[in-house]
Design brief:
Pfam families: PAC2. The chain is an alpha/beta fold. Strands 1, 2, 3, 4, 5, 6, 7, 8, 9 and 10 form a 10-stranded mixed beta sheet that branches. The C terminus is likely disordered. Helix 2 packs across helix 4. Strand 4 and strand 5 form a beta hairpin. About 35% of the residues lie in helices and about 25% in strands. The chain contains 7 helices and 10 strands. The radius of gyration is 17 Å and the shape is globular.
Length: about 250
């Protein structure tokens, strides 16, 4: 049975912005959302029990408590929710997951969806970043100077399903797409996403020094998940260009 189990009734949210961090190309969404939750000391607000999610439990180092693999974290001061996921969402479950999440959070707050697009780049070169939106989301992007796409493309995987659901239902949503290395975790792209995309949309500065300083450690720790995403390509949230002929 689909359910969002709220754990913190003491946390008051008005019209929160929800930032999604499902695993995808370069793990940019997961890295960015994990960093956001840790940097802002967000509290574990809810467990996500949507149908189709893997029936597993996860745990972290130096912590004996088991948790669900998909969770929501909250920051009442910034009126912010972060969706953190330790597992990929399979294509058959993607639309059901999107409907489950949107049915729970139906008060009209903006959803920010994150995706990498496979792009190799020279060392020291900033990745490309652009945004797309629906139901007023495009105006929010323009207001903070986030560029529109330079080419046609599509977003697939669970993030694509969430964006598709937003278009179909008129949900206010933003999609941020960042160039990221396709075969390995890309903390630098995640940091750029936070600094130039998520931070401006939230109207706050997001420190990223620790994310950049620990890039080598993060790449090593997250490499196994990145390999899993490669092996199950269709479960990976990603943007990709559309050719002239389809």
């Amino acid at each position: 049975m689909s359910d969002i189990e709220v754990l913190r009734d003491d946390v008051s949210l008005d019209d929160p912005t929800l930032v999604e961090g499902l695993p995808g190309v370069g793990l940019v969404g997961k890295l960015a959302t994990d960093h956001l939750a840790e940097t802002f000391d967000m509290v574990h607000y809810a467990n996500v029990h949507c149908d189709g999610l893997p029936p597993v439990a996860t745990y972290e180092d130096d912590d004996r408590e088991l948790v669900t693999p998909v969770r929501l974290y909250a920051d009442a001061e910034r009126d912010l929710l972060a969706l953190r996921s330790d597992v990929p969402v399979t294509p058959p479950a993607a639309l059901e997951f999107a409907e489950c999440l949107s049915a729970w959070d139906d008060d009209g707050g903006t959803h920010v969806y994150l995706s990498g697009i496979g792009r190799e780049r020279d060392e020291g070169t900033a990745p490309a970043l652009y945004g797309v939106g629906t139901a007023g989301g495009s105006e929010s992007l323009a207001a903070v100077g986030i560029e529109s796409p330079a080419e046609s493309g599509l977003v697939s995987g669970p993030t694509g399903a969430l964006l598709n659901h937003a278009v179909r239902t008129g949900r206010r949503a933003v999609g941020l797409i960042v160039g990221s290395t396709p075969n390995f975790p890309d903390p630098q792209a995640a940091a750029h996403l936070l600094q130039e995309g998520i931070g401006p949309l939230l109207g706050t500065e997001v420190p990223v020094d620790e994310l950049i300083d620990r890039a080598a450690e993060i790449r090593k720790a997250k490499r196994r998940l990145a390999r899993q995403m490669q092996e199950a390509d269709e479960t990976s949230s990603q943007a990709r260009p559309l050719g002239m002929y389809q």
